[in-house]
Specification:
By secondary structure, the protein is an alpha+beta fold. Helix content is 26%, strand content 36%. The chain has helices at residues 17-24, 41-49, 55-58, 102-116, 132-140, and strands spanning 7-10, 61-67, 70-81, 86-93, 122-128, 144-155, 158-168. Strands 1-2-3-4-5-7-6 form a seven-stranded mixed beta sheet.
Amino acid sequence: MTMAHTVTLRAPEPDDTDRLYLWENDPGTAEVPVNGAPLSRLQVWNYIQHYSADPLGTGELRLIAECAGEAVGHVDLTEIDVRNSRAEVSVYIDAAHRGRGLGRQALAAMVRHARRVLDLHQVWALVACDNAASLALFKSLDFKPAGRLRSWLRRDGRWVDVVMLQYLAV
């Protein structure tokens, strides 16, 4: 399948503040919510202003996914564990840009970066069992199921299991 445009990854810029604010507070997309409250624009602005290009030191890396000069989402490495050479990966594509293969390109680019630049042995993700699109995305890039966490997410008064998926550098 030929893509009309290629996704590139770049560091967040001050102009990304409003879009990151909206993406971070999108209630319909957080598989594994980290915060108990919405982020403010000031918090997002401060994050961008203090962005560190040392992911092994800070334990995280957030890159903006860009296609044809437009920011379409972000892909993150968190929980970077230098000693054990692994990190959690997640990808977010704005609703207006979904269904075009951009998430797959962004995730593939981050996995390459994690392996080639950061020299990580593995990246992993937690995906809700009922999120067929996300499960298919990760599996299409050779992420393998490594376990199931029962009742991991509470969503609308019910509990949802998640699958842990791993990509191992061989």
